[in-house]
């Protein structure tokens, strides 16, 4: 028969538990209100048993003697994060955040709000957004205690965000320095060809190039592909204002282009008379400045 006892045998075997069995139970609803449920004592069970010819599952009426190792665990069931608050209200101060899957220990009864402790934070969370009970125990065993991740306190979040901002600023500075170095390298390379001839339609840095052919060939040396004409070059890279121009930017004019050297100058293939040389960056009206690195 196992644990499925017929009504006669059940009365004999369960007698020793009658004194310890509770007569009433309570439950909490979503609003956190407690209700007294109808009596579920042994007398009620046996009465129902005699009045019906049904089998009784003994386990349904026995209280487990040992609590599961992780039955007091909770896990955040959210997409972004769950506030841990100082009081069980949404108006109270938030003390920390539980991110998806973060673990916590349950410290108080589970109602609309549940008191938990996670990491360095102790407070209240809205119960609809946590996994508890056997589901939490199963998740805990699946994850393994050594892999639990706990809440982040407000102070910890502030420290993390500050560190991330500092690291981002440092990275941006390093990238800017690297780009400046590359830009200067482009200028230095282009200046090697000063004095070489200007040839309409040419792209040779030594035998001759026109303005766009010169710029195209210089940047090709650094693995940067540019279109052939000045009109197409007007849309490459990122536009910047002239007062933000740095070495290595290209400056486009009406039918002409040059590489900005810094200090208000460009290196460019000027014309057939002057060849490749240097001009003031503002020698004529600037159409656009483009940043390629």
From TrEMBL:
<keyword id="KW-0378">Hydrolase</keyword>
<dbReference type="InterPro" id="IPR051202">
    <property type="entry name" value="Peptidase_C40"/>
</dbReference>
<dbReference type="InterPro" id="IPR038765">
    <property type="entry name" value="Papain-like_cys_pep_sf"/>
</dbReference>
<keyword id="KW-0645">Protease</keyword>
<protein>
    <submittedName>
        <fullName>C40 family peptidase</fullName>
    </submittedName>
</protein>
<feature type="domain" description="NlpC/P60">
    <location>
        <begin position="180"/>
        <end position="293"/>
    </location>
</feature>
<feature type="domain" description="SH3b">
    <location>
        <begin position="71"/>
        <end position="134"/>
    </location>
</feature>
<dbReference type="GO" id="GO:0008234">
    <property type="term" value="F:cysteine-type peptidase activity"/>
</dbReference>
<keyword id="KW-0788">Thiol protease</keyword>
<dbReference type="GO" id="GO:0006508">
    <property type="term" value="P:proteolysis"/>
</dbReference>
<feature type="coiled-coil region">
    <location>
        <begin position="151"/>
        <end position="178"/>
    </location>
</feature>
<dbReference type="Pfam" id="PF08239">
    <property type="entry name" value="SH3_3"/>
</dbReference>
<comment type="similarity">
    <text>Belongs to the peptidase C40 family.</text>
</comment>
<dbReference type="Pfam" id="PF00877">
    <property type="entry name" value="NLPC_P60"/>
</dbReference>
<dbReference type="InterPro" id="IPR000064">
    <property type="entry name" value="NLP_P60_dom"/>
</dbReference>
<keyword id="KW-0175">Coiled coil</keyword>
<dbReference type="InterPro" id="IPR003646">
    <property type="entry name" value="SH3-like_bac-type"/>
</dbReference>
């Amino acid at each position: 028969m196992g644990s499925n006892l017929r009504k006669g045998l059940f009365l004999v075997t369960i007698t020793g538990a009658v004194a310890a069995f509770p007569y009433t139970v309570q439950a909490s609803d979503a609003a956190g209100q407690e209700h007294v449920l109808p009596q579920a004592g042994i007398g009620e069970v046996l009465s129902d048993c005699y009045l019906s010819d049904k089998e009784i599952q003994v386990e349904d009426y026995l209280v487990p003697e040992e609590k599961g190792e992780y039955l007091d665990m909770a896990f955040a069931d959210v997409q972004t994060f769950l506030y841990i608050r100082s009081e069980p209200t949404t108006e109270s101060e938030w003390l920390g955040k539980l991110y998806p899957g973060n673990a916590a220990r349950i410290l108080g009864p589970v109602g609309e709000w549940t008191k938990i402790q996670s990491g360095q934070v102790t407070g209240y969370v809205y119960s609809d957004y946590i996994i508890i009970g056997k589901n939490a125990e199963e998740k805990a065993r699946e994850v393994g205690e050594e892999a639990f991740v706990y809440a982040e306190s407000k102070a910890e979040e502030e420290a993390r965000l500050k560190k991330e901002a500092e690291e981002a600023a440092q990275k941006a500075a390093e990238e800017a320095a690297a780009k400046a170095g590359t830009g200067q390298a482009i200028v230095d390379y282009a200046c090697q060809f000063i004095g070489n001839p200007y040839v309409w339609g040419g792209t040779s840095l030594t035998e001759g190039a026109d303005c766009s052919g010169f710029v195209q060939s210089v940047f090709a040396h650094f693995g940067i592909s540019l279109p052939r004409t000045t009109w197409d070059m007007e849309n490459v890279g990122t536009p910047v204002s002239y007062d933000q121009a740095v070495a290595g930017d290209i400056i486009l004019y009406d039918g002409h282009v040059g590489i900005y050297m810094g200090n208000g100058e460009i290196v460019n293939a000027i014309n057939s008379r002057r060849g490749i040389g240097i001009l003031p960056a503002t020698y004529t009206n600037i159409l656009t400045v483009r940043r390629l690195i």
